[in-house]
Amino acid sequence: MGFFSNLFGKKTSSIRSLAQLEFLEVDMHNHLLPGIDDGSDSVQQSLHYIQELQRLGIKKFICTPHIMAGVHQNTKFSIEHAKDSLVEGLKKSGNNVDIFGAAEHMIDENLPLLIRENELCVMPGGYVLIEMSYLSESKALFHTIRDIQKLGYKPILAHPERYNYYHSNFNIYKQIKDSGCLLQLNLLSLSRYYGVDVKAIAMTLLKSGMYDFVGTDLHHQRHLDALKNIVEKYPIREMLKTSPILNETLLDHIIQHKAQVIAG
């Protein structure tokens, strides 16, 4: 049997180091900011999640709460406020981990306005995380990608493996990549957490070298427990070697961002 047959077939029974996500350095997609979407409910809960993710090896966090018309109507202000609350909580707890606020932007009727007014919540490095509904494809995807690029930003499509309507059309992923949009894998997709079909397409994208970033997309304790299980049982770093994962490159952007903030 080949490398991937062994790697993605039966799970190893050995228990691995819980800190094996250390090589990623940065979790660039999560819902750790308290009380503003369907993620963490409170600062205390966020502190718990962050502490547990640090034990898995993650050192810095770019927090990406939803911006979704009529559901999670966040703004730069609400996200910054939630981030400040979390930073204060971290200081009180003696945890000096770096936290940054961005967003996961739903492609909906409100996004064109945010783009037009340049009110997107941008990650260090000029990246903008976007997502679509799980129920139906957004016909505005490629138009949105171009509009974000016109502002000088680099779009990242969150968890493309979870859009079931693309599973029978692998060519669409190539079209998205060819348009200049980067792709982000959810770590939980390496298991069957979201279902067999999601895992299958995630493995195909991974082996095809299509992914650029990896995120936990952590919302709640069930996600955290599942992540711990994956980290214990799967050789994550080996599995990701077939794609040019760029999480570590975010460190330089984070340092530059902090310097700019300090300089005013």
From TrEMBL:
Reaction(s) catalysed (UniProt annotation): O-phospho-L-tyrosyl-[protein] + H2O = L-tyrosyl-[protein] + phosphate
Primary enzyme class: hydrolase
Enzyme Commission code: 3.1.3.48
Gene Ontology MF terms in the entry: manganese ion binding; protein tyrosine phosphatase activity
Record field: transmembrane: none
UniProt xrefs under InterPro entries: Caps_polysacc_synth_CpsB/CapC (IPR016667), Pol/histidinol_Pase-like (IPR016195)
Alphabetic keyword roster: Hydrolase
Top-level taxon of origin: Bacteria
Matching SUPFAM superfamilies: PHP domain-like
Pfam families listed in its UniProt record: CpsB_CapC (PF19567)
Keyword Signal: no
Family: Belongs to the metallo-dependent hydrolases superfamily. CpsB/CapC family.
Protein's recorded name: protein-tyrosine-phosphatase
Organism in which the protein naturally occurs: Sphingobacterium siyangense
